[in-house]
Specification:
With 348 residues, the chain is α/β, with parallel strands linked by helices. Helices cover 42% and strands 17% of the residues. The chain has one domain: 4-Layer Sandwich (Metallo-beta-lactamase, Chain A), CATH 3.60.15.
C-alpha cells in the first residue's frame, strides 16, 4: 500500500479513537460554571484541624481511604464522590456462602439466603432496577426471587426502598422497617413529596423494634434502630459462613452524613453504640449499603480472583471494626465543627 494511503488510514483510525474517547467525557462548559469545593465559614479552623488529625490517626494505613472519603471528599467536594458513585452495572457476586451482592455501582442490595427463605436488604432506586438488575442478579446466582420472604428497608430514602413495593406485589415479600422510618415514609406519601427524585415509598408493612430478632430456618438476625442518617435507620447483625467457617456480619444501615447537622449527634451515638454491639457479637465482617462505603467494588473484584488460601476481603479484625466506626464518628464530629457546632455537646 502507498505510504500516503497508510498515513491517511492511520490518521483516520486515530481520529476515530479520539472521537470515541471524547464521547465519554463530560460536555465542555465555561469555567464560571465549574463546581466549587464546599466552604465552611462557621468552622473553628484550629478545632477542625484537631478532629481531622484525630480521624486520620485512627484510620492508619488500612482505613485511609475511608478517612479520605468521609472526612475530606464527601463533605468538601461531593462531586468527586458522585463521580465514583454513579448508576452502573457491576454484576452479582457471592460474598459469603449465604450472602450475595445483587446491587449496582451507586447503591447496594444484599441477599441473605437461609433455609427459610431469602432476606433482601434494600431494593435499589426503582421498580425498573429491581426488575432488571436485582432479580436477574438473584437468578444468576441460582437464587429464586420467589423465595424472598423479607425486604429490609434499611432507611427511608428512595434509593433503598425504590423497588420494594414491586417485590412485594410480584413475589409476596414482606417489607420490614422501623416504626420511625415507616412514619417518615407515611409522611412522604401524604405530602406527595420524597427526598430526591424517587417514587413515593411503599405502604407500611412489618415494623421491627430495636433489639428484635428474626429467625428464618437456621438463621437468626438481630435488628437495631440506629437513628442519624434517617430518624429510624435499621442496622443488622447476622451469621454467615465462608468456605464453611462461621463469621458474623455487622451491617450499619446508613453511614452517610445527615443533611441536618443536628442529626449528626444521634448519628454519632448510633455508630458508637452499634460498634459496641457488633464487638459484643464477635462481628468480623463489615458491609454497607453503598459500594463506596465498604469498598465492595474493589473487594468483589478480589473475590473473583481469590485463591484457595486467600482470606475473604470483607473480613476484618476486631480492632479494624472498632476503628472503622471510630473514623466514621470522628469525621462526623469534624462535620459538626465545620457547621459551627460543638461536637462534644449532647445535641437535641
Amino acid at each position: 500500500m502507498d505510504r500516503k494511503l497508510i498515513s491517511l488510514a492511520l490518521v483516520m483510525v486515530l481520529a476515530s479513537a479520539a472521537a470515541a474517547q471524547d464521547a465519554d467525557l463530560p460536555a465542555a462548559r465555561p469555567v464560571k460554571d465549574y463546581p466549587r469545593p464546599a466552604e465552611f465559614p462557621k468552622e473553628d479552623h484550629a478545632r477542625a484541624a484537631l478532629y481531622l488529625a484525630r480521624a486520620k490517626a485512627i484510620a492508619g494505613q488500612d482505613l485511609y481511604g475511608d478517612f479520605v472519603h468521609r472526612c475530606i471528599t464527601d463533605p468538601r467536594y461531593r462531586q468527586r464522590a458522585n463521580a465514583l458513585q454513579f448508576n452502573g452495572l457491576l454484576g452479582p457476586a457471592k460474598v459469603f456462602d449465604q450472602l450475595y451482592f445483587v446491587g449496582q455501582n451507586a447503591v447496594s442490595a444484599w441477599a441473605l439466603d437461609t433455609s427459610g427463605g431469602i432476606v433482601l436488604f434494600d431494593a435499589l432506586n426503582s421498580e425498573e432496577e429491581a426488575r432488571e438488575i436485582l432479580v436477574p442478579a438473584l437468578r444468576a446466582q441460582g437464587l429464586d426471587p420467589a423465595r424472598i420472604k423479607y425486604v429490609v428497608i434499611t432507611h427511608a430514602h428512595g434509593d433503598h426502598y425504590g423497588g420494594a413495593a414491586w417485590l412485594r406485589d410480584t413475589y409476596g415479600a414482606r417489607l420490614l422497617s422501623s416504626d420511625l422510618d415507616w412514619k417518615a415514609m407515611e409522611a412522604m406519601r401524604a405530602s406527595g413529596k420524597t427526598v430526591g427524585p424517587f417514587a413515593l415509598p411503599p405502604v407500611r408493612d412489618v415494623t421491627i423494634a430495636d433489639g428484635e430478632k428474626l429467625t428464618l430456618g437456621q438463621t437468626t438476625l438481630q435488628f437495631f434502630v440506629t437513628p442519624g442518617h434517617t430518624v429510624g435507620t435499621v442496622s443488622t447483625i447476622f451469621p454467615v459462613t465462608d468456605r464453611g467457617a462461621r463469621h458474623t456480619v455487622a451491617y450499619f444501615g446508613g453511614l452517610g452524613a445527615p443533611r441536618d447537622p443536628m442529626m449528626r449527634y444521634p448519628h454519632i451515638a448510633s455508630m458508637q453504640r452499634f460498634a459496641g454491639l457488633a464487638a459484643k457479637a464477635g462481628a468480623d465482617a463489615l458491609i454497607a449499603n453503598h459500594p463506596l462505603q465498604d469498598g465492595a467494588f474493589e473487594k468483589i473484584e478480589l473475590l473473583r480472583y481469590r485463591g484457595a488460601k486467600d482470606a475473604n476481603p470483607f473480613l476484618v479484625s476486631a480492632d479494624k471494626l472498632r476503628r472503622y466506626f471510630a473514623v466514621q464518628a470522628a469525621c462526623s464530629k469534624l462535620g459538626l465543627v465545620r457547621a459551627g457546632l460543638d461536637p462534644e455537646a449532647r445535641g437535641q
